[in-house]
Amino acid sequence: MGNLFDLSGKTAVAIGGNSVLGASISKGLAEHGAKVAILGRNLEKANQVVQEIEENGGTAKAFVADVSSRESLEKAASEIEQWSGGWDIVLNAPGKNSATPFFDLEMDEWDDIMDVNLKGIVVTCQIFAKKMIEQERKGSIINISSVSSTTPLSKVFTYSVSKAGVNSMTQFLAREFAPHGIRVNAIIPGFFPAEQNRKILSEERVQSIMNHTPMNRFGEPDELQGAAVWLSSDKASSFVTGALIRVDGGFGSMTI
């Protein structure tokens, strides 16, 4: 069974790989043999993830990229290609959130969140998937969505809309890239202690979340590794594409 999840010989590009969730997933991919390129705006944080991967016996390198800049992403893609020759796995894990009330929402903030959460992933797929197709490299693209993508959460209007777009894009691209042997799926995390949701987790909101989470707890970042490794493996998930995989402690199954 170990060979089923062996990622040896594969290169993964982790966009947002220096975030809490992105870093954990990146470490999981490295532990199963993948060579991992950590992309993020903060090179210091990216290098910290690289160091942790290398201390555990893995191979990784940090690259600077801003998903809101096509030029930045193209430069990073060129550098990664020089480093590894190409890639087989793309993890899209950038994220930005805000609790601004709807009537107070300025379009600059709307654009900023959309540029990172939705437009940025469109651009990364255009750049990184196109290169995979040109190199005739089959593989896997994994987008990180959110429980707010299906039924919107209160207080996070723009974030919810952006993640709904991620789901639609995931399913569209699954069909678009299938003839090239590239699978496209999304992971829908529940509530994890990530940077972008800490600021809206009041005591009252935490209690509300727990009331809708059968497992009655937050997720731990490492609990996303299994789904990501499974979706990255051509052996384990060879017939899985266009799927929206919930890792949410049962949150999506609850109403009242």
Automatic annotation (TrEMBL):
GO biological process, one term: carbohydrate metabolic process
Source organism superkingdom: Bacteria
PROSITE patterns membership: ADH_SHORT
Keyword Phosphoprotein: no
UniProt EC number: 1.-.-.-
InterPro entries the UniProt entry points to: NAD(P)-bd_dom_sf, Sc_DH/Rdtase_CS, SDR_fam
GO molecular function: oxidoreductase activity, acting on the CH-OH group of donors, NAD or NADP as acceptor
Pfam family, one: adh_short_C2
UniProt keywords, alphabetically: Oxidoreductase
Coiled coil: none
NCBIfam families, per the entry: PRK08277.1
Family recorded in the similarity comment: Belongs to the short-chain dehydrogenases/reductases (SDR) family.
Annotated protein name in UniProt: Putative oxidoreductase UxuB
Species of provenance: Halalkalibacter krulwichiae
Primary gene name: uxuB
